[in-house]
Amino acid sequence: MFEVSEYDGWSLVAAPSRLNVAAAPTLRSTIEAVVRDRHHRVLVDLSDTSFMDSSGLGGLVGSLKLARQAGGDLRVFGVGPQVREVLRLTSLDRVFTPYPSAAEAVSDE
Amino acid sequence: MNELLWRGSVRGPAELGYIDQVQDLLSRASAAGVPPDAMMQFELAVVEVVGNAIKHAKPVGPDPVTLDCSVEARADVLIGTLREIGAAAFSLDLTAPPMPNEEAESGRGLALAGMLLSALDCRTEAGENRWTMQYEIVDASDSPT
Lengths: 109, 145
Known about the structure:
The complex is a heterodimer of chains A (109) and B (145). Chain A is an alpha/beta fold and 109 residues long. Chain A is built from four helices and seven strands, in the order E-E-E-H-E-E-H-E-H-E-H. In chain A, the strands form two sheets. In chain A, strands 1-2-4-6-7 form a five-stranded mixed sheet. In chain A, strands 3-5 form a two-stranded parallel sheet. In chain A, helix 1 (24-36) runs parallel beside helix 2. The longest helix of chain A has 16 residues, at 54-69. Chain A is globular and about 30 Å long. The model of chain A has no long low-confidence stretch (mean pLDDT 96). Chain B has helices at residues 18-30, 36-56, 109-116; strands at 4-13, 66-74, 77-85, 119-125, 128-136. Chain B has a five-stranded antiparallel sheet. The mean pLDDT of chain B is 92.
């Protein structure tokens, strides 16, 4: 499981440096456990993530659906150039708005 | 100019941990002087193809599938080869794999690889699937301003 902390009423999940086919299932299960614990508002910190592939992206999509089905939301921040490029290529930059910081992610109503 | 900058390979069972070995290999190629933007796109394409093999390659016999990934970096082109040894024949049209919709949790890997590479091919011969991934390096200094 990845590290989870609290930030201003949101659950903050720290993603690993490589969010690839090996790490994506752990991201998904970490967020599943968070949502199951009735913490439906999830922040994913991608500050340390220098690489994400389609499996990592699929994990984020699945986690977003889980959070929204529970009445919450999932937001990402700290997005670097490689992750930004993957979001752009897949047109998922329309789904995941990359926030510069946790503070800006939680303050966007 | 077609100077060889770097060449390397890594072999292992088709398991999740193999992907990090491939990314370590690509990091070493990156250090050999490949332009960072080209390396970033090539790495994503190779990881998608290898990830696809890890998830979907089925053994033909009692032994698990072995993967052998090699990377060759030249001044104007990056070439990746992935051998799926002992795998059932791959059969999917790679001409233009579609990108799934926004809600899909999977199915983007080969579509991404196809978008990023100048050539992506898979041939089945001698009991293995052999993927070839080619990325032409465009010299930014040649681009119109």
